[in-house]
Amino acid sequence: RTPRRRPPASGGRASGRRAAEQGRCRRAARRHAMMELVAVAKSGVHVYKFQPEEQADPVSDPSHSFPPVPTAEGCVWSSDGNFLGLVDTVTGGAAVYDAANDYAKLCEVEPLVGGPVRNFYFSPLGNHLVTHERWVKDGGPNVGVWDARTGEMKMSFILKKLTDMTWPPLKWTNLETHCCRMVQDGVLVLPGNLSKGEGGEAEGKILAPGIMAFEVAPRGPGTNPPHVAICIAESKGAPARCQVFRLDDSPKKQPTATKNFFKAQTVSMQWNNVGTAMLVRTSQEVDDTGKSYYGGSHLYFMRADGEESCIVASPDDGAIHDVQWSPTQDEFFLLHGDLPCNMTLHEGRKGQKRVEFGRGHRNTIRWNNFGRFLVCGGYGQLLGDTDFWDKPGKSLMGSARLECCVVSAWSPEGRHFMAATTSPRMRVDNKIVIYDYCGSRLASLPFDELLLAGWRPRPRGAFQDRPPSPGREKAKPKAGSGAGGSGGGYPAEPKKQAYRPPGARGGGGLAEMLRKELGSTQAEVSKTATKVGAGPAQYSLPPGMAPDMGGSSASGGGGGGASRNARRKKAKEAAQASVEDGAAASTPAASAP
Predict the structure, then answer these.
(1) What are the backbone dihedrals phi and psi of residue 89, each rounded to the nearest 5 degrees, phi first?
(2) CA distance linking residue 469 with residue 403, whole number of Å
(3) Residues 6+ away with beta carbon under 8 Å from 418
């Protein structure tokens, strides 16, 4: 007897329910991973939704708008994009909005010394909000630490001088297990939640008289505690000193690595993403060699365990334009040298150069969140030529000219790039332009006066890393379209004309060189990166034969690289030549009277 079959109607309803559930999950995932960007303009703070699937109009009208803020520093995102902080021009404090809950206001903190709040930022997990106001004598603390959700004050202290080396005053690890604060004679080590220990004191203190800067590693190597790096200024002829300490429970902390150097008026330190190595960049205002008007800079590499330390770049080879660690790999990218500068990728174990990306007029490095795509641009006083690289494939995906670019950043999903022209650097033509990962222009938003632009950060795991689409390349611009055209690339090449002698080309040699320099800042154009030490073979060799053996035999030189027959032949010729020279020398002596 045949088994009874299930009615098709019920099966259809079940499959329909499953399809509907999958559709709801996909829609929820899209809402969770929706990309947004914020524009801080004079008219207000506007939040836009970016929908790349809408090719006709990927950027819609503002979904949310807020009152204007006084400066570009008045708008800050938390690292996961859940909180948006804005300065309130009425009260002088700062307000926190819950971006995950349709931008509902969570709390508002009041100014400490009358306001307004000039700078503020969130802790890595968004648990704390740190605000800074201008210091007033006898006015009390001007830096406050608040609960980002309730607005309750955690602690406050005085910060008299605000510089790049003293801001931010509090630095956490990525998981907020430890927090460090620089004081006059060292670094205070606090718990991540800023709770006081027994007796109201901190967990520990690293004594460092003359400290000028410090930096906390994002995490510890493996399961070990994280590290903190401090830099002590030069004093009475003694060199500056950079030391690395482990944030453990030991009462007397001993340095795990030390590096001494001179010519360090200012210093900046960068940890890699795993907290095992660090780059130290020192600068001075006056260059002793006289090669640079902007002073000189050194770049040092050192590991947290003290096993490796070296100098990566010095002023003798030119200026250091930019250096950035990869967000996912133990490697860093460096722009160093006189323009056109060298573009190189270094490994993070010993700081050695691994891959060369050619040379060009570049001074800015931008990694996407996954460390796959890399942008090298020349902004500021340069023309804005920008290269889009695929780092794993070591190939150039496209180029564009981003004229008057002031602010630039990759989108959270790592496949779109934003370039903004902001005030006060540029008073006219303020705009936001969005490109794809090959340099093709997708959308543009004009503004009367734009102070700041940026993407809303998204938490880790919201997007997945994807390689370039097969056969995807930058669309070539139409003939006659310049940098502002739809393609966003270089101006079209002129049509071929009849030959004219140099004297009849409307200018001398110097004018022609200047025109070429202004027309393009790409030197030694290369579409592929080259590994250091790798190159095509100049000749074919038998199996097992070393390249130097073939080179020495081809050049006629002897030694260990030549074959046995070649060495025997050369020795025989040398012996015969010496015999002939001796016979020639003895012949005149025998014929003398």
Answers:
(1) -70, -20
(2) 27
(3) 37, 407, 408, 409, 410, 411, 432, 433, 434, 435, 453, 454, 455
Residue 590's SS3 state is helix
Distance CA(593)–CA(281), nearest Å, equals 81
> Where are the extended beta strands (E) located within 7-100?
35-41, 44-50, 64-66, 75-77, 83-87, 94-98
Distance of CA 390 to the CA centre of its chain: 15
Asked if residue 116 has a cis previous peptide bond (ω within 30° of 0), the answer is yes
What span, in angstroms and rounded, lies between the C-alpha atoms of 102 and 267? 41
Peptide bond connecting 340 to the previous residue in cis, omega within 30 degrees of 0: yes
On whether the CB atoms of residues 217 and 228 are closer than 8 A, the answer is yes
Helix (H, G, I), strand (E, B) or coil at 569: helix
Alpha carbons 120 and 113: distance in angstroms, whole number:
15
DSSP code of residue 496: P
Closest to 411 measured CA to CA, from 456, 459, 365, 473: 456
Percent of the chain, pLDDT > 70? 74
Helix (H) or strand (E) holding 451: strand 450-455
* pLDDT tens-digit series, residues 560-575: 444 677 778 888 888 8
Sign of CA dihedral 99, 103, 107, 113: positive
As a whole number of angstroms, the distance between CA 385 and CA 531 comes to: 24
Task: Calculate ∠ Cα 312-324-220, nearest 5°.
Answer: 90
More confident residue, 142 or 553: 142
Confidence of residue 554 (pLDDT cuts 50, 70, 90): very low
- Could you give the CA distance from residue 523 to residue 506 in angstroms, rounded to a whole number? 25
Tell me the per-residue pLDDT of 410-425, one tens digit each, with 9 for 90 and over. 999 999 999 999 999 8
Written as six digits, the tokens of 334 are 């460096």
Residue type, 215: E
- With a cut of 80, say whether residue 371 has pLDDT above it: yes
Q: In sequence order, what are the beta bridge partners of 296?
A: 284
Residues contacting residue 36 through CB under 8 Å, at least 6 positions apart: 47, 48, 49, 50, 63, 99, 455, 456
Contact between 337 and 322 (Cβ < 8 Å): no
State the DSSP code for 137: T
Cα 201 from Cα 548, distance rounded (Å) = 66
Name residues whose C-beta falls within 8 Å of residue 383's C-beta, 6 or more positions apart in sequence: 361, 401, 403, 518, 521
Higher model confidence: residue 456 or residue 198? 456
Burial 53-64 (b: 16+ CB within 10 A, else e): eeeeebbeebeb
Residue in the block written with tokens 């002088």: 92
Using a cut of 0.85, tell me whether the model's pTM lies above it. no
Which distant-in-sequence residues (6+ apart) come within 8 Å of 21 by Cβ?
none
For tokens 């180029």, name the residue: 399
Which range is least confidently modeled, 25-34, 65-74, 291-300, 393-402?
25-34
